[in-house]
Input
Amino acid sequence: MTEIKQCQNCKQEFIIEPDDFAFYEKMNVPPPTFCPDCRYQRRIANRNEWNFYKRDCTLCGNSMVSIYNPSYPGPVYCQPCWWSDKWDPLSYGQDFDFSKTFFEQFFEFRFKVPRVALANSKSINSEYTNQSENNKNCYMVVAVGESEDCMYGNWNRLSKNCMDCWSVMECEIMYECLNCRYDYKCFFTEDSRNSRDLYFCRDCMGCNDCFGCVGLRGKSYCWFNEQLTKEEYQKRLTEISWTHEDIQSIRKRADEFWLKYPRKYYQGRNAINSTGENLGSGDKNVHYGFNVRLSENTSYAQDAWEARDCMDLTETLDNELDYEMEGAGWGANCISMAKSWYNRNSYYSELNFNCHDIFGCMSLRSKSYCIFNKQYTEDEYKNLKEKIIAHMKKTGEWGQFFPAKISPFPYNDSLAQDYFPLTKDEVIARGLKWYDRDVRDYKVTLPHEKLPAKINDVTDSILQEIISCSSQDSETDKASHLRCATAFRLHPAELQFYRRFNLSIPHKCFPCRLQERLARRNPRKLWHRQCMCDGSTSSPQAKNHFHGADKCPNEFETSYAPDRKEIVYCESCYNSEVA
Ligand SMILES: [Zn+2]
Ligand SMILES: [Zn+2]
Ligand SMILES: [Zn+2]
Ligand SMILES: [Zn+2]
Ligand SMILES: [Zn+2]
Output
């Protein structure tokens, strides 16, 4: 039976579905006391993606890039030290104290055991990358893998030469693109695949050489959905001057043009009995999934791929029967694990790799039957584990993820500040940490207004300049761009990219560009709505709609809020229009 509960955190009501109860029973956890949003916020309050700091390795003293800011009180090791045998994580072992809560003890413990500076492995020449692996020559990327020469992006996989992109897979030469697959040489393009040479396009499949288009299949030389000859298309393309102002105004025109065409109630294709956004074929019984693909029977997950029978996952890959996980991959039968890979039957642990049967552990590699980094025999472990679970059930901790209060990151360094932004006063009022950054007093040498309009007029000396970010021009922009760096410099590889593709220099710093790019996605919330197709809006080439001239009766959960301008269709009506 569906149950309505009040969230202990935000006091809003939330629903627990009948299927959810079966899962909680299977995992031996009580039903949640936080609503799905507050659970998401709690997980990402434990995650810092983008805030990099220079600090020295506590073991070898070398300077390194780290996600732990200078106020972090515990030891932080560089990659080579942390992965070496120069230290023993078991030397931090301690007994469980039944006179205290679990989280009280873990709070102290997690600041005592050395952490690795960045979650980043097997990468070459990619110092400023986090939650990433197997990359080469990448700079300022997060959650990126098997990629080369990528900059300023997140969720890229198997991609090359992509700049300022979100979620591009098996793509090459992409700029300011979101959610693209198997594309080559696309600019300012979204939700497109198997295409090349697209500019300002949306939802185009198997297309090439198109500009400003939306919802096309297998087309070439189209200009705002108008078919041109190859010659006419090329003529128009050469007439674009690619100044900063031009790019801004084309972008605006494309956004307005796209609005005239219906869009499907979710991004993705053929997700079966699923709700969410950025879903894919291969998804079955996924609910409240945001960027969840190739997953089954999984609910309340964000940026989670290949999950089976899981709930409450954030930034995960290949999980089975897992609950409340953050940055954890290739695991099974785990509860409340953070930044841990290849673990099974493990609970409430952080930064562990290739372990099984561990509880309350930190920074272990290839260990088993450990509690608070103390080694036990299998029998001892199982006995003590049951006692701790009983203790945590009494304290109300069992089944809850690490509270934001014991996060290793101040709230404003965590990813929670991106999805659930709070002011300093609000953060303090909630008993969370806030980090006062050093005042930014970059001496701007080139105000962005003075940037040359065309890239051809830019000389190499620009690499020496400190350019002001245009978000600083207005008070409203300043207030909404909380992470603005106020000024920025260009990376040589970045300049080379702009020159090669005739693109003007951006007028905003990277954190502002990232924020604006991610804001182009829908919010990670769902509304119940009806298909807006009324049988009269079909385009001339549309196939017959199943509902004829009547209004389509289909209803769905969508991340398009009811007051938005987009025309939102069910999958069937949408496919009648574009497929
Ligand atoms: Zn809540
Ligand atoms: Zn070191
Ligand atoms: Zn900025
Ligand atoms: Zn419909
Ligand atoms: Zn219809």
